[in-house]
Amino acid sequence: MKKIESIIRPHKLEELHTALQEEGFYGLTVSEVRGYGRQKGHTEIYRGSEYDLQFVPKVKIEIVCASDQCETAISIVLNTCRTGEIGDGKIFISTIEDAIRIRTGESGREAL
Amino acid sequence: MENQLTTEITNNLFTINNLWMMIATALVFIMHLGFASLEAGLTQSKNTLNILFKNSVIPAIGLLTYAFIGFNMMYPGESYAGGLFGFAGFGVGADAIGLTSRYNLGYTYWTDFLFQGMFAATAATIVSGAVAERIKLSSFLIFAAIFVAFAYPIVGMWKWGGGFLDALGFYDFAGSTLVHSVGGWGALTGVLFLGPRAGKYVKGRIHPIPGHSIPLAVIGVFLLWLGWFGFNGGSVLSADPGLVSLVFVTTSLAASAGAIGAMTASWTFLKNPDLTMTLNGILAGLVGITAGADLMSPMESIIIGFIAGVIVVFAVILFDKIKLDDPVGAMSVHLVCGIFGTLAVGIWGEKAGLDQLWNQIIGVISVAAFILPFTAIVWFILKKTMGLRVSEREEYDGLDIGEHSMEAYPDFEKVS
Questions:
Q1: Taking the CB of the first residue and of the last residue of chain B, which one, N or C, has fewer CB atoms within 10 A?
Q2: Which domains does chain B possess?
Q3: CA B413 and chain centroid, separation
Q4: Tens digits of residue pLDDT in A92-106
Protein backbone atom coordinates (compact mmCIF):
# COMPACT_ATOMS: atom_id res chain seq x y z
CA MET A 1 0.00 0.00 0.00
CA LYS A 2 1.40 3.40 -1.01
CA LYS A 3 0.72 7.00 -0.23
CA ILE A 4 1.29 9.48 -3.03
CA GLU A 5 1.60 13.06 -1.85
CA SER A 6 1.65 15.52 -4.72
CA ILE A 7 2.30 19.20 -4.22
CA ILE A 8 0.92 20.91 -7.28
CA ARG A 9 -0.10 24.24 -8.75
CA PRO A 10 -3.51 25.16 -7.27
CA HIS A 11 -5.17 25.65 -10.65
CA LYS A 12 -4.23 22.10 -11.71
CA LEU A 13 -6.35 20.53 -8.98
CA GLU A 14 -9.57 20.32 -10.97
CA GLU A 15 -7.88 18.66 -13.96
CA LEU A 16 -6.03 16.19 -11.77
CA HIS A 17 -9.13 15.33 -9.80
CA THR A 18 -11.13 14.62 -12.94
CA ALA A 19 -8.36 12.44 -14.38
CA LEU A 20 -8.04 10.46 -11.15
CA GLN A 21 -11.77 9.81 -11.02
CA GLU A 22 -11.77 8.60 -14.62
CA GLU A 23 -9.08 6.08 -13.72
CA GLY A 24 -11.01 4.82 -10.71
CA PHE A 25 -9.27 6.56 -7.83
CA TYR A 26 -12.14 7.42 -5.57
CA GLY A 27 -10.65 8.77 -2.38
CA LEU A 28 -8.26 11.61 -1.80
CA THR A 29 -7.40 14.37 0.66
CA VAL A 30 -6.66 17.91 -0.44
CA SER A 31 -5.11 20.72 1.58
CA GLU A 32 -3.98 24.23 0.86
CA VAL A 33 -0.32 24.58 1.72
CA ARG A 34 2.45 27.12 1.31
CA GLY A 35 6.09 26.54 0.63
CA TYR A 36 8.89 26.84 -1.85
CA GLY A 37 11.35 24.78 -3.80
CA ARG A 38 13.42 25.84 -6.81
CA GLN A 39 10.69 28.36 -7.67
CA LYS A 40 11.57 30.38 -4.55
CA GLY A 41 8.97 33.04 -3.83
CA HIS A 42 7.75 35.92 -5.88
CA THR A 43 7.68 39.70 -5.46
CA GLU A 44 4.59 41.77 -4.79
CA ILE A 45 4.21 45.54 -4.49
CA TYR A 46 2.01 47.28 -1.92
CA ARG A 47 1.74 51.05 -1.90
CA GLY A 48 5.04 51.57 -3.66
CA SER A 49 7.16 49.12 -1.65
CA GLU A 50 8.20 45.72 -2.95
CA TYR A 51 8.20 42.70 -0.73
CA ASP A 52 9.01 39.04 -1.27
CA LEU A 53 6.45 36.34 -0.75
CA GLN A 54 8.76 33.49 0.17
CA PHE A 55 6.06 30.91 0.59
CA VAL A 56 4.03 30.26 -2.53
CA PRO A 57 0.47 28.93 -2.25
CA LYS A 58 0.22 25.30 -3.42
CA VAL A 59 -2.26 22.47 -3.16
CA LYS A 60 -1.26 19.16 -1.60
CA ILE A 61 -3.20 16.13 -2.77
CA GLU A 62 -2.82 12.82 -0.92
CA ILE A 63 -3.85 9.51 -2.42
CA VAL A 64 -3.49 6.15 -0.73
CA CYS A 65 -3.75 3.17 -3.09
CA ALA A 66 -2.72 -0.42 -3.56
CA SER A 67 0.94 -0.78 -4.56
CA ASP A 68 0.08 -2.01 -8.06
CA GLN A 69 -1.93 1.13 -8.79
CA CYS A 70 0.86 3.42 -7.70
CA GLU A 71 2.49 3.79 -11.13
CA THR A 72 -0.85 4.70 -12.73
CA ALA A 73 -1.54 7.36 -10.14
CA ILE A 74 1.92 8.86 -10.59
CA SER A 75 1.58 9.00 -14.34
CA ILE A 76 -1.78 10.75 -14.02
CA VAL A 77 -0.22 13.39 -11.79
CA LEU A 78 2.70 13.84 -14.17
CA ASN A 79 0.44 14.09 -17.20
CA THR A 80 -1.97 16.59 -15.77
CA CYS A 81 0.23 18.76 -13.58
CA ARG A 82 3.33 19.24 -15.69
CA THR A 83 3.75 22.56 -17.47
CA GLY A 84 7.52 22.36 -17.80
CA GLU A 85 8.01 25.64 -15.93
CA ILE A 86 9.66 25.98 -12.53
CA GLY A 87 6.99 25.64 -9.85
CA ASP A 88 5.17 22.53 -11.06
CA GLY A 89 5.69 20.87 -7.67
CA LYS A 90 6.81 17.50 -6.40
CA ILE A 91 5.55 13.99 -5.73
CA PHE A 92 6.48 12.10 -2.57
CA ILE A 93 5.80 8.39 -2.31
CA SER A 94 5.82 6.41 0.88
CA THR A 95 4.81 2.97 2.04
CA ILE A 96 1.72 2.69 4.17
CA GLU A 97 1.55 -0.06 6.76
CA ASP A 98 -2.19 -0.44 6.90
CA ALA A 99 -5.50 1.38 6.43
CA ILE A 100 -8.68 0.98 8.44
CA ARG A 101 -12.18 2.18 7.56
CA ILE A 102 -13.56 3.67 10.76
CA ARG A 103 -17.23 2.93 9.98
CA THR A 104 -16.83 -0.83 9.53
CA GLY A 105 -13.45 -1.67 10.97
CA GLU A 106 -12.33 -3.24 7.68
CA SER A 107 -8.62 -3.08 7.05
CA GLY A 108 -6.11 -3.51 4.23
CA ARG A 109 -7.25 -3.19 0.58
CA GLU A 110 -10.91 -3.38 1.58
CA ALA A 111 -10.52 -0.17 3.56
CA LEU A 112 -9.35 1.89 0.58
CA MET B 1 -54.27 87.37 -0.56
CA GLU B 2 -50.83 88.04 -1.94
CA ASN B 3 -49.38 87.94 1.55
CA GLN B 4 -50.94 84.55 2.16
CA LEU B 5 -49.42 83.25 -1.05
CA THR B 6 -45.96 84.44 -0.02
CA THR B 7 -46.29 82.66 3.32
CA GLU B 8 -47.37 79.51 1.52
CA ILE B 9 -44.37 79.63 -0.82
CA THR B 10 -42.00 80.29 2.06
CA ASN B 11 -43.38 77.35 3.99
CA ASN B 12 -43.05 75.01 1.04
CA LEU B 13 -39.52 76.19 0.36
CA PHE B 14 -38.67 75.69 4.02
CA THR B 15 -40.04 72.15 3.96
CA ILE B 16 -38.14 71.25 0.81
CA ASN B 17 -34.91 72.78 2.08
CA ASN B 18 -35.20 71.05 5.41
CA LEU B 19 -35.98 67.73 3.74
CA TRP B 20 -32.81 67.93 1.64
CA MET B 21 -30.76 68.87 4.70
CA MET B 22 -32.06 65.81 6.55
CA ILE B 23 -31.22 63.57 3.59
CA ALA B 24 -27.75 65.14 3.54
CA THR B 25 -27.45 64.42 7.26
CA ALA B 26 -28.21 60.76 6.64
CA LEU B 27 -25.66 60.69 3.82
CA VAL B 28 -22.95 62.09 6.09
CA PHE B 29 -23.92 59.43 8.62
CA ILE B 30 -23.19 56.64 6.14
CA MET B 31 -19.64 58.01 5.75
CA HIS B 32 -18.88 56.53 9.15
CA LEU B 33 -19.59 53.08 7.72
CA GLY B 34 -17.35 54.05 4.82
CA PHE B 35 -14.48 54.92 7.16
CA ALA B 36 -15.07 51.73 9.17
CA SER B 37 -14.95 49.54 6.05
CA LEU B 38 -11.96 51.30 4.52
CA GLU B 39 -9.88 51.19 7.69
CA ALA B 40 -10.79 47.57 8.40
CA GLY B 41 -9.91 46.61 4.84
CA LEU B 42 -6.50 48.28 4.81
CA THR B 43 -5.35 46.71 8.09
CA GLN B 44 -4.59 43.14 9.17
CA SER B 45 -7.32 40.64 10.03
CA LYS B 46 -6.02 40.26 13.58
CA ASN B 47 -6.90 43.90 14.27
CA THR B 48 -10.25 44.08 12.46
CA LEU B 49 -12.52 43.90 15.47
CA ASN B 50 -10.48 46.58 17.22
CA ILE B 51 -10.69 49.04 14.34
CA LEU B 52 -14.41 48.38 13.86
CA PHE B 53 -14.91 48.90 17.59
CA LYS B 54 -13.27 52.31 17.39
CA ASN B 55 -15.29 53.25 14.34
CA SER B 56 -18.53 52.15 16.01
CA VAL B 57 -17.89 54.16 19.16
CA ILE B 58 -16.50 57.35 17.57
CA PRO B 59 -19.80 58.48 15.96
CA ALA B 60 -21.49 57.84 19.29
CA ILE B 61 -18.91 59.88 21.19
CA GLY B 62 -19.05 62.56 18.50
CA LEU B 63 -22.82 62.99 18.62
CA LEU B 64 -23.02 62.91 22.42
CA THR B 65 -20.22 65.41 23.03
CA TYR B 66 -21.63 67.59 20.27
CA ALA B 67 -25.00 67.57 22.03
CA PHE B 68 -23.48 68.36 25.42
CA ILE B 69 -21.02 71.09 24.44
CA GLY B 70 -19.77 70.89 20.84
CA PHE B 71 -22.67 72.48 18.99
CA ASN B 72 -22.85 75.48 21.29
CA MET B 73 -19.08 75.88 21.17
CA MET B 74 -18.97 75.76 17.37
CA TYR B 75 -22.05 77.96 16.82
CA PRO B 76 -22.12 80.17 19.92
CA GLY B 77 -24.14 82.89 18.20
CA GLU B 78 -23.85 86.49 17.06
CA SER B 79 -22.32 87.88 20.25
CA TYR B 80 -19.07 85.94 19.69
CA ALA B 81 -18.68 87.02 16.05
CA GLY B 82 -15.09 87.64 15.00
CA GLY B 83 -13.69 85.95 18.08
CA LEU B 84 -11.51 83.01 19.02
CA PHE B 85 -13.81 81.20 21.39
CA GLY B 86 -17.45 81.22 22.34
CA PHE B 87 -19.83 79.04 24.26
CA ALA B 88 -23.59 79.30 24.39
CA GLY B 89 -24.19 76.85 27.23
CA PHE B 90 -24.60 73.12 27.78
CA GLY B 91 -26.99 70.90 25.90
CA VAL B 92 -29.22 71.46 22.89
CA GLY B 93 -32.83 72.56 22.76
CA ALA B 94 -35.08 74.42 20.36
CA ASP B 95 -37.54 77.18 21.11
CA ALA B 96 -40.65 77.74 18.98
CA ILE B 97 -38.75 79.89 16.49
CA GLY B 98 -36.16 77.15 16.05
CA LEU B 99 -38.69 74.96 14.28
CA THR B 100 -39.81 77.56 11.79
CA SER B 101 -38.34 79.28 8.77
CA ARG B 102 -37.55 82.24 11.02
CA TYR B 103 -34.64 80.21 12.48
CA ASN B 104 -33.27 79.67 8.99
CA LEU B 105 -35.02 79.23 5.64
CA GLY B 106 -32.81 76.19 5.01
CA TYR B 107 -33.42 74.02 8.07
CA THR B 108 -34.85 73.73 11.56
CA TYR B 109 -32.74 73.93 14.68
CA TRP B 110 -32.83 70.14 15.03
CA THR B 111 -31.67 69.56 11.46
CA ASP B 112 -28.93 72.13 12.01
CA PHE B 113 -27.69 70.32 15.11
CA LEU B 114 -27.77 66.83 13.66
CA PHE B 115 -26.19 67.77 10.31
CA GLN B 116 -23.31 69.50 12.09
CA GLY B 117 -23.11 66.72 14.67
CA MET B 118 -22.63 64.09 11.96
CA PHE B 119 -19.59 66.05 10.76
CA ALA B 120 -18.04 66.27 14.20
CA ALA B 121 -16.97 62.66 14.63
CA THR B 122 -15.33 62.59 11.18
CA ALA B 123 -12.24 64.38 12.45
CA ALA B 124 -11.61 61.69 15.09
CA THR B 125 -12.27 58.90 12.60
CA ILE B 126 -9.45 60.26 10.45
CA VAL B 127 -7.05 59.86 13.39
CA SER B 128 -8.27 56.33 14.04
CA GLY B 129 -6.99 55.04 10.70
CA ALA B 130 -3.53 56.57 11.04
CA VAL B 131 -2.85 55.17 14.52
CA ALA B 132 -4.41 51.76 13.82
CA GLU B 133 -2.91 48.39 14.75
CA ARG B 134 -0.81 49.60 17.71
CA ILE B 135 -2.70 52.08 19.87
CA LYS B 136 -4.32 51.17 23.19
CA LEU B 137 -8.09 51.27 22.93
CA SER B 138 -8.64 53.17 26.18
CA SER B 139 -6.08 55.87 25.38
CA PHE B 140 -7.49 56.32 21.91
CA LEU B 141 -11.07 56.68 23.10
CA ILE B 142 -10.06 59.35 25.62
CA PHE B 143 -8.15 61.20 22.91
CA ALA B 144 -11.12 60.94 20.53
CA ALA B 145 -13.54 62.31 23.11
CA ILE B 146 -11.32 65.31 23.95
CA PHE B 147 -10.60 65.89 20.26
CA VAL B 148 -14.23 66.04 19.11
CA ALA B 149 -15.51 67.73 22.25
CA PHE B 150 -13.02 70.63 22.20
CA ALA B 151 -10.52 70.81 19.34
CA TYR B 152 -13.01 70.33 16.49
CA PRO B 153 -15.72 72.79 17.62
CA ILE B 154 -13.24 75.48 18.70
CA VAL B 155 -11.56 75.51 15.28
CA GLY B 156 -14.91 75.13 13.52
CA MET B 157 -16.17 78.26 15.24
CA TRP B 158 -13.30 80.30 13.80
CA LYS B 159 -14.92 80.01 10.38
CA TRP B 160 -18.38 78.45 10.40
CA GLY B 161 -19.40 79.90 13.77
CA GLY B 162 -18.53 83.41 12.62
CA GLY B 163 -15.12 83.61 14.29
CA PHE B 164 -11.96 85.48 13.30
CA LEU B 165 -11.14 83.43 10.18
CA ASP B 166 -14.62 84.14 8.85
CA ALA B 167 -14.19 87.87 9.52
CA LEU B 168 -10.82 87.67 7.74
CA GLY B 169 -12.32 86.27 4.53
CA PHE B 170 -10.92 82.75 4.80
CA TYR B 171 -13.09 80.33 2.81
CA ASP B 172 -13.76 76.67 3.52
CA PHE B 173 -17.01 75.53 2.00
CA ALA B 174 -17.41 72.08 3.56
CA GLY B 175 -14.25 71.52 5.55
CA SER B 176 -11.02 70.75 3.67
CA THR B 177 -9.35 72.50 6.58
CA LEU B 178 -11.96 72.57 9.34
CA VAL B 179 -12.70 68.85 9.14
CA HIS B 180 -10.00 67.10 7.12
CA SER B 181 -6.83 68.98 8.07
CA VAL B 182 -8.00 69.12 11.67
CA GLY B 183 -8.20 65.33 11.66
CA GLY B 184 -4.96 65.14 9.67
CA TRP B 185 -2.93 67.24 12.15
CA GLY B 186 -4.28 65.10 15.00
CA ALA B 187 -3.22 62.01 13.07
CA LEU B 188 0.26 63.43 12.49
CA THR B 189 0.95 64.10 16.17
CA GLY B 190 -0.54 60.71 17.04
CA VAL B 191 1.77 58.91 14.62
CA LEU B 192 4.76 60.89 15.95
CA PHE B 193 4.05 59.95 19.56
CA LEU B 194 3.20 56.33 18.77
CA GLY B 195 5.92 55.31 16.35
CA PRO B 196 5.53 52.85 13.50
CA ARG B 197 4.01 49.37 13.69
CA ALA B 198 6.48 46.65 14.67
CA GLY B 199 8.21 45.26 11.59
CA LYS B 200 7.27 48.12 9.26
CA TYR B 201 10.70 49.74 9.02
CA VAL B 202 13.54 47.31 9.56
CA LYS B 203 17.19 48.10 8.83
CA GLY B 204 16.33 51.04 6.62
CA ARG B 205 13.92 49.04 4.49
CA ILE B 206 10.16 49.45 4.21
CA HIS B 207 8.30 46.21 4.82
CA PRO B 208 4.73 46.66 3.63
CA ILE B 209 1.97 45.26 5.81
CA PRO B 210 -0.82 44.66 3.28
CA GLY B 211 -4.43 45.21 4.25
CA HIS B 212 -6.43 42.03 4.69
CA SER B 213 -9.52 42.87 2.63
CA ILE B 214 -9.31 44.98 -0.48
CA PRO B 215 -13.02 44.37 -1.24
CA LEU B 216 -13.89 45.91 2.13
CA ALA B 217 -11.69 48.92 1.33
CA VAL B 218 -13.45 49.40 -2.02
CA ILE B 219 -16.88 49.25 -0.37
CA GLY B 220 -15.67 51.83 2.14
CA VAL B 221 -14.46 54.26 -0.50
CA PHE B 222 -17.68 54.04 -2.50
CA LEU B 223 -19.71 54.62 0.67
CA LEU B 224 -17.55 57.66 1.38
CA TRP B 225 -18.12 58.99 -2.13
CA LEU B 226 -21.87 58.48 -1.65
CA GLY B 227 -21.73 60.20 1.71
CA TRP B 228 -19.81 63.12 0.22
CA PHE B 229 -22.95 64.12 -1.73
CA GLY B 230 -24.37 64.96 1.69
CA PHE B 231 -21.11 66.30 3.10
CA ASN B 232 -20.65 68.80 0.26
CA GLY B 233 -24.21 68.94 -1.08
CA GLY B 234 -25.58 69.58 2.40
CA SER B 235 -23.02 72.29 3.03
CA VAL B 236 -25.02 74.49 0.63
CA LEU B 237 -27.28 74.66 3.72
CA SER B 238 -30.42 74.70 1.58
CA ALA B 239 -31.86 72.83 -1.39
CA ASP B 240 -30.86 75.66 -3.76
CA PRO B 241 -31.22 73.82 -7.08
CA GLY B 242 -28.37 75.53 -8.90
CA LEU B 243 -25.80 75.31 -6.14
CA VAL B 244 -26.60 71.80 -4.89
CA SER B 245 -26.47 70.36 -8.39
CA LEU B 246 -23.23 72.23 -9.16
CA VAL B 247 -21.71 70.88 -5.95
CA PHE B 248 -22.75 67.33 -6.89
CA VAL B 249 -21.01 67.78 -10.25
CA THR B 250 -17.77 69.30 -8.89
CA THR B 251 -17.64 66.68 -6.13
CA SER B 252 -18.03 63.75 -8.52
CA LEU B 253 -15.70 65.15 -11.17
CA ALA B 254 -13.00 65.80 -8.57
CA ALA B 255 -13.36 62.26 -7.21
CA SER B 256 -13.12 60.84 -10.73
CA ALA B 257 -10.10 62.95 -11.62
CA GLY B 258 -8.53 61.96 -8.29
CA ALA B 259 -8.87 58.29 -9.19
CA ILE B 260 -7.28 58.85 -12.61
CA GLY B 261 -4.55 61.05 -11.12
CA ALA B 262 -3.55 58.47 -8.52
CA MET B 263 -3.78 55.61 -11.02
CA THR B 264 -1.55 57.48 -13.44
CA ALA B 265 0.98 58.41 -10.76
CA SER B 266 1.08 54.90 -9.33
CA TRP B 267 1.39 53.26 -12.74
CA THR B 268 4.00 55.70 -13.99
CA PHE B 269 6.21 56.31 -10.97
CA LEU B 270 5.68 53.17 -8.92
CA LYS B 271 5.75 49.82 -10.59
CA ASN B 272 2.08 48.90 -10.66
CA PRO B 273 -1.46 50.26 -10.86
CA ASP B 274 -2.05 50.01 -7.10
CA LEU B 275 -5.73 49.82 -6.20
CA THR B 276 -5.24 51.09 -2.65
CA MET B 277 -3.50 54.17 -4.10
CA THR B 278 -6.35 54.66 -6.58
CA LEU B 279 -8.85 54.45 -3.72
CA ASN B 280 -6.80 57.05 -1.84
CA GLY B 281 -6.89 59.11 -5.04
CA ILE B 282 -10.71 59.14 -5.07
CA LEU B 283 -10.69 60.36 -1.48
CA ALA B 284 -7.93 62.87 -2.26
CA GLY B 285 -10.07 64.36 -5.03
CA LEU B 286 -13.05 64.54 -2.68
CA VAL B 287 -11.05 66.19 0.11
CA GLY B 288 -9.42 68.52 -2.40
CA ILE B 289 -12.71 69.85 -3.81
CA THR B 290 -14.39 70.17 -0.43
CA ALA B 291 -13.12 73.68 0.37
CA GLY B 292 -14.36 75.14 -2.90
CA ALA B 293 -17.01 72.75 -4.18
CA ASP B 294 -19.46 75.63 -4.75
CA LEU B 295 -16.91 77.93 -6.41
CA MET B 296 -15.39 75.76 -9.11
CA SER B 297 -16.35 75.14 -12.70
CA PRO B 298 -16.44 71.53 -13.83
CA MET B 299 -13.06 71.93 -15.53
CA GLU B 300 -11.51 73.48 -12.43
CA SER B 301 -12.84 70.69 -10.24
CA ILE B 302 -11.24 68.16 -12.58
CA ILE B 303 -7.88 69.96 -12.35
CA ILE B 304 -8.08 70.09 -8.55
CA GLY B 305 -9.13 66.44 -8.27
CA PHE B 306 -6.39 65.24 -10.63
CA ILE B 307 -3.64 67.14 -8.83
CA ALA B 308 -4.90 65.88 -5.46
CA GLY B 309 -4.84 62.33 -6.83
CA VAL B 310 -1.21 62.70 -7.91
CA ILE B 311 -0.21 64.43 -4.68
CA VAL B 312 -1.65 61.69 -2.51
CA VAL B 313 0.54 59.01 -4.10
CA PHE B 314 3.70 60.99 -3.48
CA ALA B 315 2.57 61.90 0.02
CA VAL B 316 2.13 58.22 0.89
CA ILE B 317 5.64 57.47 -0.40
CA LEU B 318 7.10 60.48 1.41
CA PHE B 319 5.53 59.64 4.77
CA ASP B 320 6.88 56.09 4.41
CA LYS B 321 10.34 57.46 3.59
CA ILE B 322 10.43 59.51 6.77
CA LYS B 323 9.11 56.52 8.72
CA LEU B 324 5.74 57.98 9.66
CA ASP B 325 3.64 54.83 9.55
CA ASP B 326 0.05 55.44 8.47
CA PRO B 327 -1.67 52.14 7.56
CA VAL B 328 -4.53 53.73 5.60
CA GLY B 329 -2.89 56.89 4.22
CA ALA B 330 -5.06 59.18 6.35
CA MET B 331 -2.41 61.91 6.63
CA SER B 332 -1.81 61.90 2.88
CA VAL B 333 -5.52 62.09 2.06
CA HIS B 334 -6.89 64.34 4.77
CA LEU B 335 -3.94 66.48 5.85
CA VAL B 336 -1.98 66.98 2.64
CA CYS B 337 -4.98 67.13 0.28
CA GLY B 338 -6.97 69.08 2.86
CA ILE B 339 -4.30 71.78 2.77
CA PHE B 340 -4.09 71.60 -1.01
CA GLY B 341 -7.88 71.92 -1.37
CA THR B 342 -7.93 74.91 0.95
CA LEU B 343 -5.20 76.67 -1.04
CA ALA B 344 -6.97 75.73 -4.29
CA VAL B 345 -9.73 78.22 -3.39
CA GLY B 346 -7.15 80.99 -3.84
CA ILE B 347 -5.84 79.55 -7.12
CA TRP B 348 -8.94 78.47 -9.05
CA GLY B 349 -12.63 79.34 -9.06
CA GLU B 350 -14.71 82.40 -8.31
CA LYS B 351 -12.58 83.65 -5.42
CA ALA B 352 -9.16 83.04 -6.98
CA GLY B 353 -6.64 85.76 -6.28
CA LEU B 354 -3.57 86.58 -4.25
CA ASP B 355 -5.53 88.14 -1.39
CA GLN B 356 -7.72 85.07 -1.12
CA LEU B 357 -4.71 82.76 -1.36
CA TRP B 358 -3.09 84.65 1.51
CA ASN B 359 -6.29 84.31 3.59
CA GLN B 360 -6.31 80.60 2.84
CA ILE B 361 -2.69 80.28 3.98
CA ILE B 362 -3.49 82.12 7.21
CA GLY B 363 -6.41 79.74 7.76
CA VAL B 364 -4.24 76.66 7.28
CA ILE B 365 -1.51 78.01 9.57
CA SER B 366 -3.95 79.13 12.27
CA VAL B 367 -5.54 75.71 12.44
CA ALA B 368 -2.14 73.99 12.54
CA ALA B 369 -0.93 76.39 15.21
CA PHE B 370 -3.79 75.32 17.46
CA ILE B 371 -4.35 71.63 16.64
CA LEU B 372 -0.66 70.59 16.63
CA PRO B 373 0.13 71.72 20.21
CA PHE B 374 -3.35 70.81 21.48
CA THR B 375 -3.18 67.22 20.26
CA ALA B 376 0.52 66.90 21.14
CA ILE B 377 -0.28 67.81 24.76
CA VAL B 378 -3.17 65.33 24.92
CA TRP B 379 -1.04 62.53 23.40
CA PHE B 380 1.86 63.40 25.72
CA ILE B 381 -0.28 63.29 28.87
CA LEU B 382 -1.86 60.00 27.78
CA LYS B 383 1.57 58.54 27.03
CA LYS B 384 2.92 59.52 30.46
CA THR B 385 -0.13 58.33 32.40
CA MET B 386 -1.90 55.42 30.68
CA GLY B 387 0.55 54.67 27.91
CA LEU B 388 -0.26 54.89 24.21
CA ARG B 389 0.97 51.63 22.74
CA VAL B 390 -0.03 48.06 23.32
CA SER B 391 2.78 45.68 24.28
CA GLU B 392 4.96 44.21 21.54
CA ARG B 393 3.53 40.78 22.31
CA GLU B 394 -0.02 42.07 21.95
CA GLU B 395 0.85 43.77 18.69
CA TYR B 396 2.05 40.45 17.27
CA ASP B 397 -0.97 38.54 18.55
CA GLY B 398 -3.34 41.23 17.37
CA LEU B 399 -5.41 43.84 19.14
CA ASP B 400 -8.62 41.86 18.70
CA ILE B 401 -7.48 39.30 21.26
CA GLY B 402 -5.32 41.73 23.25
CA GLU B 403 -7.82 44.55 23.74
CA HIS B 404 -11.13 42.73 23.42
CA SER B 405 -10.53 39.00 23.97
CA MET B 406 -12.61 38.57 20.82
CA GLU B 407 -11.96 37.91 17.15
CA ALA B 408 -13.45 39.49 14.05
CA TYR B 409 -13.23 36.16 12.24
CA PRO B 410 -13.65 33.56 14.99
CA ASP B 411 -13.82 30.52 12.71
CA PHE B 412 -10.98 31.61 10.48
CA GLU B 413 -8.53 29.11 11.97
CA LYS B 414 -10.16 27.03 14.65
CA VAL B 415 -13.43 25.40 13.66
CA SER B 416 -14.61 23.93 16.94
A1: C
A2: 8-79+95-404 (1.10.3430.10)
A3: 35
A4: 999 999 999 999 999
